[in-house]
Design brief:
Blueprint (H helix, E strand, L loop, with lengths): L4 H14 L1 H38 L5 E4 L5 H8 L4 E16 L8 E10 L12 E5 L9 E4 H7 L6 E6 L2 E12 L20 E7 L5 H9 L2 H8 L1 H13 L4 H7 L8 H13 L4 H11 L13 E6 L11 H18 L8 E4 L4 H42 L1 H9 L4 H40 L13 H26 L3 H5 L17 H4 L2 H12 L1 H39 L4 E5 L5 H11 L3 E10 L5 E10 L6 E2 L5 E2 L19 E4 H6 L7 E6 L6 E9 L7 E4 H5 L9 E4 L14 E6 H54 L4 H37 L13 H23 L7 H6 L3
């Protein structure tokens, strides 16, 4: 008789069909593992490589420079440095824009970041604009180029006319283009905002030629010599009139009054009268200034405190450790040092991509996917491995006679072994292939769409890398190896041994009867205890599966609870105010006093600093000088909050008002190997002097890892406190940014909460997905557990039925064991759910955040009730098969 592979292939399909439940569990676990890994990787790798492509194509800047003003000569000097390809300067100012919400209603005033580009640059080569609609940018064109997401959210179209405000100055521009930019992929109004609703904050590019001229003229009018001319204009006019009465001409008058002969005195005095009366127009102010200085040019007054640098060469992929990446980073450090050492240029700070909010946020978000995919894949593969061990060992035991028959018919051990390994191989291979195909569009695309609601990344796409196929191959190989290990002992037996039925290994302790407590236990309890001890691998698989399902449910609801807790912690406890007013840079002392009188003097100042870590590396950070009178609080480790002037109980070591005494966030201390009492070397950006002061207190901040300081400690250094933010509980809901002189932006705590709630709504889709996967996982595991139990115990159930046990009693025995194993799985899954959630918040999110799991009791109750319901429903459905037990067939099967 000749044997061929067709016979064994038919046997595989027949056996899988007969044991569909068990093999489907293996299929489902491998499928979920590959789908989770490939799906999450598809979106995270898609973000990574789409951003790298966008940054490279549109030439994202490598360095950001800050100074009081970069002149043309400064730019040329920096361009002349080795390894510098190009430099561009610009002016960024906070502003706002009027948006018509509804016809006939008052326009909404929305915060904007306005970027005024150097008019001498013919094109924008660094961080070039990606045109979505309209015409290309050119400095000689009037109009504005609006950020795509803001334009989309507010329905702004090319050709619309928009009214903007800068420091209270109004100007109108036509929308020339809708654009995206590599340095504005992610934009927020300030560092206190994690998620910015696109409709609530926007950005725009304009030529510096569009800057409101009146703003510049008013700044010039404040200069000492010009202000002196305005103050003395009436006296000069009287002198001129007196000289004219005696026949003197204007040149004689200027000579007598020691006024420069180039000054057009008559025009100056005429316009000065209008200016002093408050009736002067923009042209009147221009005429007055030109009358004083005929050579005056407005473009000479433009100030460019920002510059961006394109370093020679293309930045390597930051997500792949390589020699080229290290060399490029060394090149950046070299260029930084060279710029700092330039004698004629005063650069206050230089930062690279890793510090830039847009770049760093997208990088952190895309790297989170690596943690998610690895965590979920490990869980599913672990359960799949247990399923394989249990299913295949039971399956092979049932096929002892068939294995013996195959050997007796002449099949070699190798051929029989390959045949049974094929069960695990083909099932896992098909599952892996389907997971790879479905993961991207079903899981990856929704996640990518969610991310793209925050990140303006043109051409973003899913990306399936070779690692996905490698992981799939590794998982299939692992399942195949586990299959072999679970069956090798039986396959090694001889044909004669295999043809004999295996004698059950029953220990004395497992026999019926006994003394003491065991004698008093109900029959169903003793029967199930004995069965669990006999079927340890199946029981362990069931427990681990239920544990995984419970874990995911706790994670799903725990994420929601933890983020809700964050909202309360950050926006109710730490930021304990209703509104904050961000002050204009040039607000006068008199105006500041008026603002204090109106809104209170609770304030703070943010100071950009550089500090040295324990290895001597210079790191950019910030100090919040807190004089908020408890409106801006510091948090202890347990999230209790305190006024900074009171210190933090049990976490303060030293005098908080001592000269330069620093508060530091706990996470910053940990990451820099610092501790309370250590001395930190730091300096204010733009200054040469370094301070060495002690860290006297540690606090927690969920979204910003930096330093804080009391006003007394700051002024103790000899520094001048200049507040940039005022906090108030007044109701400013009817006031817009442009309504208060000296205030650039007004931010309500409610608006920040709403922005976070918008993010939570997006996260809810991920939570729904987690819940669905948890339910599927729970059903599959419990269903498989039930099928295995029924198939193994059909002989025992038939015996019990012969002995007179009714269906209800049999169903109770069957369900009772499932209930026990489910409860054990739940007990183990609840704390693990907390630990996994805490792990995700600590390691999957960006380094700037300090989140932790804070899960409400309701999440645990939902996990318990949900898992038990799945178990009960599955057990009830499966127990119906007990009604159909063929007692004769079941009993004869074991003869």
């Amino acid at each position: 008789m000749r044997f061929n592979g067709n016979m064994l292939r038919k046997k595989i399909f027949r056996d899988i069909k007969r044991n569909f439940g068990q093999f489907f569990t293996i299929f489902a676990m491998v499928f979920l593992a590959i789908m989770a890994f490939s799906g999450i990787s598809a979106f995270s790798d898609g973000l990574k490589y789409s951003s790298v492509e966008f940054y490279e194509k549109n030439n994202l800047e490598d360095l950001w420079l800050y100074s009081e003003n970069f002149t043309t000569d400064d730019i040329d000097t920096i361009k002349a440095l080795d390894n510098v390809t190009d430099v561009e300067r610009y002016l960024t100012m906070p502003g706002s824009v009027d948006i018509n919400s509804k016809e006939g209603s008052e326009p909404l005033n929305i915060q904007m970041e306005l970027n005024f580009l150097d008019g001498e640059d013919d094109v924008k080569n660094i961080s070039s604009m990606y045109l979505r609609d309209g015409e290309e940018y050119s400095p000689d064109k009037d109009g504005v180029w609006i950020g795509y997401y803001f334009a989309k959210a507010r329905g702004i179209k090319v050709g619309d006319k928009l009214t903007f405000y800068v420091e209270g100055y109004e100007f109108t521009e036509t929308v020339r283009g809708i654009v995206s930019s590599p340095d504005h992929v992610y934009t927020v109004s300030d560092s206190s905002v994690i998620f910015q609703n696109a409709a609530d904050f926007g950005w725009a590019y304009l030529s510096i030629n569009e800057f409101p001229k009146e703003y510049l003229y008013d700044e010039i009018l404040k200069e000492d010599d010009v202000a002196e001319m305005l103050d003395s204009a009436s006296d000069i006019q009287e002198a001129v009139d007196a000289y004219k009465e005696v026949g003197a001409d204007i040149d004689f008058v200027k000579d007598e009054l020691d006024i420069d002969e180039d000054v057009d005195l008559e025009t100056a005095l005429d316009k000065a009268e209008l200016i002093n009366s408050g009736k002067a127009s923009v042209s009147d102010k221009e005429a007055f200034i030109k009358a004083l200085d005929p050579d005056f040019k407005l473009e000479d007054c433009y100030v460019y405190p920002n510059a961006i640098v394109d370093v020679t060469g293309t930045a390597p992929n930051p997500y792949i450790d390589s020699k080229e990446l290290i060399q490029f980073e060394d090149k950046l450090k070299s260029v930084k040092n060279e710029i700092y050492e330039l004698d004629d240029i005063s650069v206050s700070a230089i930062t690279d991509r890793d510090v830039w909010g847009s770049y760093a946020s997208l990088k952190a978000e895309s790297e989170e996917g690596d943690t998610y995919s690895g965590m979920f894949s490990f869980l599913f593969v672990f359960i799949a491995g247990l399923s394989v061990v249990t299913t295949m060992s039971r399956f092979v035991k049932k096929q002892r006679v068939q294995i013996g028959t195959l050997k007796a018919l002449g099949f070699r051990n190798t051929r029989v072994t390959i045949h049974y390994i094929a069960y695990g191989f083909w099932v896992s291979l098909m599952a892996a292939a389907l997971g790879l195909v479905i993961g991207g569009p079903v899981l990856g695309q929704p996640f990518l769409n969610m991310e793209l609601s925050m990140f303006d990344l043109p051409g973003a796409h899913r990306c399936i890398l070779s690692k996905n196929y490698i992981i799939a191959i590794m998982i299939v190989a692992a399942i195949t190896i586990i299959t072999y290990l679970s069956i090798k002992s039986i396959l090694k037996e001889s044909a004669a041994q295999t043809l004999r039925l295996e004698v059950p290994h029953i220990k004395i302790k497992a026999k019926e009867g006994g003394k003491g407590l065991s004698a008093r236990l109900p029959f169903s309890v003793k029967w199930n205890l004995r069965d669990i001890l006999r079927s340890r691998s199946r029981s362990i698989m069931a427990i681990v599966g239920v544990m995984g399902s419970t874990l995911l449910i706790v994670m799903a609801f725990g994420m929601q609870d933890s983020l809700n807790h964050y909202l309360e912690w950050e926006f109710d406890n730490i930021q304990a105010y209703n509104y904050k007013l961000t002050l204009s840079e040039n607000v006068s002392d008199d105006r500041l006093g008026e603002l204090f009188d109106t809104y209170g003097d609770a304030s703070s100042q943010t100071v950009a600093i550089e500090y040295k870590d324990t290895d001597g590396n210079i790191i950019t950070s910030a100090i919040t000088v807190n004089d908020s009178d408890g409106y801006l609080r510091v948090s202890g480790h347990d999230t209790s909050t305190y006024d900074i002037n009171d210190g933090i109980p049990d976490n303060t070591k030293g005098d908080i008002n001592e000269e330069g005494a620093l508060y530091a966030t706990e996470k910053l201390l940990k990451e820099n190997n610092l501790s309370l009492g250590d001395t930190l070397t730091w300096r204010i950006m733009g200054e040469d002097d370094w301070y060495e002061t002690k860290i006297v207190s540690a606090y927690r901040d969920p979204q910003s890892q930096q330093f804080s300081m009391t006003r007394a400690a700051f002024e103790g250094l000899g520094e001048t406190y200049v507040c940039d933010t005022i906090y108030t509980d007044d109701d400013l809901s009817d006031i817009t940014d442009s309504d208060i002189d000296g205030v650039s932006t007004i931010t309500s705590i409610e608006s920040m909460k709403e922005q976070m709630n918008s993010m939570l709504e997006m996260i809810s889709s991920m939570i729904v997905l987690l819940i669905a996967i948890s339910a599927i996982l729970g059903f599959i595991i419990i269903y498989n557990m039930g099928i295995l139990a029924l198939s193994e115990k059909m002989y025992q159930f038939a015996t019990l039925k012969v002995l007179g046990f009714k269906f209800r009693k049999l169903a109770l025995i069957y369900t009772q064991q499932n209930l026990w194993l489910t409860i054990i799985g739940i007990i183990l899954g609840l704390p693990l759910g907390y630990e996994f959630t805490d792990f995700m918040f600590k390691y999957a999110i960006g380094d700037n955040y300090d989140f932790f799991a804070n899960i409400d009791l309701s999440a645990y109750l939902i996990a318990i009730i949900g898992t038990l319901m799945i178990m009960l429903v599955t057990s009830i459905v499966l127990s119906r098969s007990l009604k159909k037990v063929d007692m004769v067939a079941s009993l004869k099967a074991n003869e």
